[in-house]
Design goal:
The chain is an alpha+beta fold. The protein is built from 5 helices and 5 strands, in the order αβααββααββ. The chain has helices at about 5-15, 20-25, 35-45, 65-70, 75-85; strands spanning about 20, 50-55, 60-65, 90-95, 100. Strands 1-3-2 form a 3-stranded antiparallel β-sheet. A two-stranded antiparallel sheet has the order 4-5. Strand 2 and strand 3 (about 60-65) form a beta hairpin.
């Protein structure tokens, strides 16, 4: 499940707490709404995330990780550390997984390096 396209980046985005759909996808360039929706449904089915409908006006829908999902924090933190060490400033991967030259526009699309703060373990 974690190895599927964009799953790690989505989990990392959700680690900051309860968020709306658009807030989860905002820091992940190249992630389509359709794929985000698909992954969130998969996370719900696996018990990693829960969807909460808040009956305000207008109605809000928020997603948050369950205890099972939050237990992945150390794994995502280690993947982030690995990416910083091995992909760092010299080489990064774009959304298609192809190497790109550091400083190029593609660097911003590396989903493992999108966040300046790392999850707390």
């Amino acid at each position: 499940m974690i190895g599927r396209r964009w799953s790690g980046a989505i989990l990392r985005s959700m680690m900051s707490g309860s968020q709306r759909f658009s807030e989860i996808g905002a820091p992940i360039p190249g992630l389509s709404d359709r794929l985000l929706s698909e992954r969130l449904k998969e996370f719900e089915a696996a018990g990693l995330a829960e969807r909460k409908v808040i009956p305000d006006t207008p109605i809000r829908v928020e997603y948050q990780l369950t205890d099972k999902g939050r237990a992945l924090t150390p794994v995502v933190a280690e993947l982030t550390s690995w990416a910083e060490e091995w992909l760092g400033a010299e080489v990064s991967c774009d959304a298609g997984g192809q190497p790109a030259v550091a400083g190029s526009e593609a660097r911003a699309r590396n989903p493992l390096l999108l966040w300046s703060d790392r999850p707390t373990v």
